[in-house]
């Protein structure tokens, strides 16, 4: 009686158990919806049948129990592989069917996926016409068809992964973003205005670009400058062509960004002494003004050391007084009226200036008289090489070429004795 009751409940449960569906957003194909109650009931009933099979009174019900075991086992396998295939199909459908760029780049795989697409939709429609879970999943040959589709999908996935790797090799910064983002970039590759939303993931602080307008007033594919996340605008030294394959024009953007920052730095270093620093710093982007301030600090300290060796014992103290005066000027500017961007720029330079002043004060208190002293060599010293027209960052006996990555107008952490031990050769 107990067994008969279990089997009766089992039959009642699965007679009324139906799949739930939701429409695919692009194709309106009815896709299976994940049903936690269905999965839980399936697992519980399989355990229940195993317990029944171990009973010594099974003989009379053996065929019926074995039949249910087989049906539920097949249902479990089919549901599991179905969701796996459905998930992969959903991911690849938007790529191989929905993206013309990818279809043109991977024609053979696209044709292969079209066959998969037809087969899967046929299975979906067949499943949708048979709402009962056990009946739908136990159709002859269904599991084999799903396995075949799964293996063909894995070939498409492998080809897609290899294709993405070729793009990552062409523009290595693609390694830092997800495959989903990379696919979105590649599918919109010929439209730089659509790719712009991903710039902040590929560059340190480039949020968007400013494009030249065509004759009708619409944005063209020639970028004229870049905006940071703080909305600082820096014009490129020459227009950057953003047409063609996305990895090629992104490399052009990278080169243009670096050459622009380097050009601005060249101009700023040369013009530093042409006008008071508090006026000079507003002529250049925040990153350039800060770096050139650090370059001139290194230069002024080295000049002070040279004068000490010539017999001017107070040259370092004179430079210290100049630093204090420069700091006071910046502080008085902060009290006055400034735009948010200019205020951030002045605050950043103030932060680094305070540290520079403290380093000079330390060298004065320790009576350092030689530029080869460790107190000075252990500092991060930016240097401008007139011959190479490059900025170098030196610390002890190490030297790094400045990378000219555009950093925008961001704040700097206050430098303390602890953080001073962990210097970044690029950011300072």
From TrEMBL:
InterPro entries: DHC (IPR026983), Dynein_2_N (IPR042222), Dynein_heavy_linker (IPR013602), Dynein_linker_3 (IPR042228). It comes from the Eukaryota. It holds the Pfam family DHC_N2. Residues 2-268 form the Dynein heavy chain linker domain. This is Dynein heavy chain 9, axonemal.
